[in-house]
Amino acid sequence: MTAVDHKQHRLRVIVSFALVYVLWGSTYLAMRVAIVSGIPPYAVGSVRYMISGPLMLACLALMGRKIRPTRQDLLRLLIIGVLLLSISNVCVMWAEEYVSSSLAALVVALVPIFVVALEAWVFRVGRMPARGLAGLALGIAGIMVLLWPKIVSGTRLGRLELMGAAILAGASMTWSLGSILSHRWTLSVDVFTAAAWQMTLAGLVNTAIALATGKFQRAHWTPQGLGAIAYLVVCGSWIGFTAYIWLLEHVPPPKVATYAYVNPIVAVFLGWLLLSEKVDAFMLAGAVIIISAVALVNTSKLKRDGAPADSREIAEAPAVNVAGD
């Protein structure tokens, strides 16, 4: 690689990191805008993924990529898509009816911890080492600090915010399960095609649910809400995801995993700047503790039969951001 090629590659890496950091961090804000504008979560999930998925498949077909999956592929892609985009992603939007985008991003930041816990205790990949257990305990402490004002308030608003946080915890667990299955299951199509099919299939499921529950009729299609959905399609599902996949192919996964530390910070800053969301000492302290916990878990390695095994990091899975994919 010549000096010019090296500089160009370095520039591409920097730009790609910036896109993943900023765009994926901003998707929590966009989802909050869509929800408070009066568009129900499943209606957002329907429109977003019925645009992003089929158009992405069409572009891949025009590029000459294989987009036809096998029947086994379709079943697996349907399961992963439902877990990630019909349950987890929609639950995040549902929770954002009660909590700020900042709080949502900080709770969801615990996904890497859930992934390691599931792989250690459910999939039996290996034993969680002391550092991983310390990260898990620290993450729980961070959530307690983050939610402490809501816990002690005793008000109806505080109870609603706690309910929103519980929904976010469930969404994070579901996302973690979907990400693990995505990492474990072998498909005959590449990662871009897999993501496009996941979005398309989840979009169909979201559309069916939205139609069955009358969510489209109740939606208020305001310019702000439609603009937020357009932003999620272009910046979250297309640009951010493409930059992420490119990084995985050119940068070691542990470095790419740093998005998990930066996205919550970006989300908190944008929520404060653009939506005037409150950022108090509890939120700042909780953010520091949670990000530290994720760092501990991401740098730990599961142990198999007393020997260290390769760490299973969330960054290795093709679908990684609850808001952004």
Topology readout:
Layout: H1 3-36, H2 41-62, H3 71-95, H4 101-108, H5 111-121, H6 130-153, H7 156-184, H8 191-212, H9 215-218, H10 223-250, H11 253-256, H12 259-274, H13 281-298, E1 303-304, E2 307-308
Antiparallel strand pairs: 1-2
Helix pairs in contact: 1-4, 1-10, 1-12, 2-3, 2-8, 2-10, 3-7, 3-8, 4-7, 4-12, 5-6, 5-7, 5-13, 6-7, 6-13, 12-13
Describe the structure.
- A two-stranded antiparallel ribbon has the order 1-2.
- It has helices spanning 3-36, 41-62, 71-95, 101-108, 111-121, 130-153, 156-184, 191-212, 215-218, 223-250, 253-256, 259-274, 281-298, and strands at residues 303-304, 307-308.
- By secondary structure, it is mainly alpha-helical.
- It starts with a helix and ends in a 17-residue tail after the last strand.
- It is globular, with a radius of gyration of 19 Å.
- A hairpin with a 2-residue loop joins strand 1 (303-304) and strand 2 (307-308).
Strand content: under 5%
H and E order: HHHHHHHHHHHHHEE
Strand order of the largest sheet: 1-2
Radius of gyration: 19 Å
Overall 3D geometry? globular
- Strand elements, count: 2
- Tally of separate helices: 13
Question: What ranges have pLDDT less than 50 throughout 5 or more consecutive residues?
Answer: 308-319
Keywords:
325 residues, mainly alpha, two-stranded antiparallel ribbon, 1% strand, globular
Summarize the structure.
The chain is built from 13 helices and two strands. By secondary structure, it is mostly helical. It has a two-stranded antiparallel ribbon.
